[in-house]
Specification:
Layout lengths: L13 H19 L13 H66 L5 H8 L2 H6 L9 H56 L4 H9 L30 H12 L17 H11 L8 H4 L4 E3 L9 E4 L5 E7 L2 E4 L8 E4 L5 E6 L2
Antiparallel strand pairs: 1-6, 2-3, 2-6, 3-4, 4-5
Helix pairs in contact: 2-3, 2-5, 7-8
């Protein structure tokens, strides 16, 4: 008969135990490194921390661009709601004036012996019930008919504006919900990145921040805030005056802090910087990376000229402003101010040339 006794388990000793412990620690690090409250394995090297931090920054930046898009939609919807509410107030005022006129006609009829049924209908009906029964207008002539016709048109206009305002309010609520979701995602990713960075020494922390937004093997590029001096557009070799103005603006922003969602003048995120640079040149760019890439002429990496917008990662989540010689000015991530960096430090996704 087969035995059902549980096999005796052997204890792990020596090299086997150390290997198992190492694998367990690595597994725990992979689970917690990207969590909301997890901490990095203290044995991670600075390069390993940087790799994880870069991944978190990229995820945060993608959420930032989604936040920027939702904020733009919310701002537009909010402005539309205000405009429609103002329009409805004006139309309602005109409607009340017409009602007053009809009331005057009805009062005159009453004094003459009775109120026309069409007048009673106009005074007592809601917009919906009146419009449904407004066929009675065909039986009325003269001043009375014109007043009733105007009332019907105005009631229809008020109803349409009211419906449009309700639709815009729904759009606004949806955009506000997305704003809150993206904000939570951003803050979670940045918190996790900071938890990893807190495990480093001050020197390692500085090395990670000074190595750009790319891979751990990317060469270090120091902050250029010390070189932040005004540069005249005429001193910049660019394909157009506007491109030179955009580049000059970007030089003037060197050293300013990265703040997600910021559009200046004292801080920027990546798309906020490029938008502000081209705005200074008189060109209006949309707010997000994934909409900016569709502006102007698309160009290849080999055709880049100063002023071009350069985009990175498959999700088009980062953008910089090309300044020539394989370099760009960009706002990398929290803790890394606006700086000059090589275009090849991140996965190139495309480029566009505003005009």
């Amino acid at each position: 008969m087969a035995s059902h006794r549980k096999p005796k388990q052997r204890s792990l000793t020596g090299t086997t135990a150390r290997t198992a412990a190492t694998l367990a620690m690595a597994g725990a690090a992979s689970v917690t490194a990207f969590g909301e409250t997890g901490h990095a394995d203290p044995q991670l090297s600075a390069n390993e921390v940087k790799t994880q931090v870069d991944a978190l920054y990229q995820q945060a930046e993608q959420a930032t661009e989604q936040y920027n898009g939702a904020k733009e939609a919310a701002d537009t919807a909010r402005a539309d709601v205000t405009r429609l509410q103002d329009e409805m107030a004006r139309k309602t005022a005109r409607l009340n004036t017409t009602r007053d006129e009809i009331g005057s006609i009805a009062a005159a009829q009453y004094r003459s012996g009775g109120i026309d049924p069409s007048m009673q209908l106009a005074l007592d009906s809601t917009p919906d019930t009146y419009l449904e029964r407004a066929g009675i207008l065909s039986q009325v002539t003269g001043r009375q008919a014109q007043a009733l016709r105007t009332l019907g048109e105005q009631q229809q206009a008020v109803k349409q504006t009211h419906d449009a305002a309700d639709a815009k309010l729904a759009t606004l609520r949806d955009a506000q919900t997305k704003l809150a979701e993206h904000k939570r995602t951003i803050e979670t990713k940045l918190h996790a990145a900071q938890a990893l960075l807190d495990r480093l020494t001050a020197a390692q922390h500085a090395a990670v921040n000074n190595s750009g937004h790319g891979s751990a093997s990317a060469p270090a590029h120091a902050d250029r805030s010390a070189d932040r001096v005004p540069i005249a557009p005429g001193d910049i070799k660019a394909p157009s005056v506007r491109a030179a103005q955009a580049v000059a603006f970007a030089y003037g922003a060197l050293g300013l802090p990265y703040v997600w969602g910021a559009t200046g003048p004292s801080a920027y995120d990546c798309s906020g910087l490029t938008q502000a640079a081209w705005k200074a040149a008189g060109v209006s760019l949309p707010r997000t990376t994934y909409t900016q890439i569709n502006v102007g002429q698309r160009v290849s990496e080999s055709q880049l000229q100063p002023g071009d917008l350069v985009f990175f990662y498959s999700g088009i989540s980062h953008v910089g402003l090309y300044i020539g010689n394989g370099q760009m000015i960009h706002a990398p991530h929290p803790g890394a101010p606006v700086r000059i960096a090589p275009v090849n430090e991140m996965p190139f996704a495309g480029a566009s040339r505003p005009s």
